[in-house]
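Final report, section 2: Outcomes. Of the targets proposed, Protein EI24 homolog is the one most frequently requested by collaborating groups, and we therefore present its record in full.
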Amino acid sequence: MGMESLASQAKPAAVLWLAGFLQAARLHRVVSFCARSRPLSIRIAQCFLLNGFIFLGSLLTLKSAVIPILSWILPEQCDQLQGQRLCDHTGAVATYSLIHSVLVEIFYVFWFYPLYIFSFILSALWYNDIAKHALDVVKGKSLDATQALDGHTISESIDRPEGFDGVAIGIGEQVYSILLLTIFFVEVSVIGYIPYFGKAMNFMLLSLMYAYYCFEYKWNFFAVSLKNRLNFFESNWAFFAGFGSPCVLPIFFFSPLASYGVMAILYPLFVLTATGTQSEKVIDQLKPLHGGKLQRLPVFFIAKRLTAQVLQLFPKAQKEQ
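The predicted structure is given below as C-alpha cells.
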C-alpha cells in the first residue's frame, strides 16, 4: 500500500516540479518588467552593482590577487621560500604563516563582513522596492490585471476586513509569518547536518523556502490571508520546490560568501518571475496531465507547532507580571 501510494505521487510531483522550474527559468519576464518601469530597472542595476561588481568583485580580487601576493611575500611553506637557510629556521616559516593569516583575517573583518551586513540590509530593502515596482507594472497593464494574478489571490483580498481591523490582522499575520519562517530556516539548517540524506532534504526545503519568499511579496501586496497562502503552498509543494531550485543551486557550487553574492543577484530576478507567474492557472492546467492526485505535504508542520509554543509564552508572561 505504501509503495503504491508513493508511485501514485511520483508523476504529479515530477510534472509540477518541472512546471515550477520552467516558470522560474522564464527570465525574459525580467526584461519585460524592466522595459515598463525605469525605477525597477534602476533597482535591478543597483543589485547587480552592489552584489555582483562590488561584493563578488572584492571576493575575486582577494582570491586571485591579494592572497597570491601575500603568499609570495609571506610564504606559508618551506618549499616556497627562496633561501634554503630560512627553511632551517622553522620559526621563520611559522611567523610568515601567522602574519599571512592575520592579514587575510583583517581583510575579512574590516571589509567582507561589514560589506556582507551592508549588502544584506540594503538588498532586503531593494527587494521590496523591486516587488512593488513589478506589481505596479502588473496593475498598470492595459490587459486585464487578473491575467497576472491568481484567482485565490483576488477572492481572498476581498474577504479581509477594512479599516483598523484589517490593519491589525495584517500586522498580526506579518509577525506570525516572520516568526514561522525564522523557525523554519533554523529547522532547514539543522536538517542539513543529518548524515546521508540531510543534504538532499536541505536542498528541497531551501528550494521551498526561497520559493515562498519569492511569492510572498505578491501575496502580501494583494492581501492574501496567511492561512490561504500556506494552504495553497503546501497543497502544491512540488511546484514551489521546482520554482525555488534554480535559486538554491549556487549553494552547492560556491563557497558560502560567493554563494550569497550569486544568490543576491539571482533572487530579485526570481521575484520578478514569481510576480509574472499565474501559479494557480498553471497548476490547474496540468491536472489533466497528472490526474491532480498530489497529496498535501505539511511543510511547515514543525515550524507551526513551535511558533504556536513561542506565542503562548507572551500571554503567560503578561499574567505573571
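The chain is about 80% helix and 0% strand.
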